[in-house]
Amino acid sequence: MKKLSIIVPAYNEEETVGLFYDAFSKVESQMDVEPEIIFVDDGSKDKTLIELKKLQKEHEEVHYISFSKNFGKEAALYAGFQKATGDFIAVMDADLQDPPELLPKMLNVVEAGEYDAVATRRRDREGESKIRSFFARIFYKWITKFSSLELVDGARDFRVMTRQMIDSILLMNECERFSKGLFNWVGFSTYYISYENRERAAGTTSWSFWGLLKYAIEGFISFSTAPLSFVTATGVLTCIVAVLGTIAVVVRAIVFPHTSAFGWPSLVVIILFLSGTQLLSLGIIGRYLAEVYLEVKHRPIYIIKDER
Ligand code: UDP
Ligand code: MG
Question: Whose CA is nearest to atom 12 of ligand 1?
Answer without folding.
Answer: 93
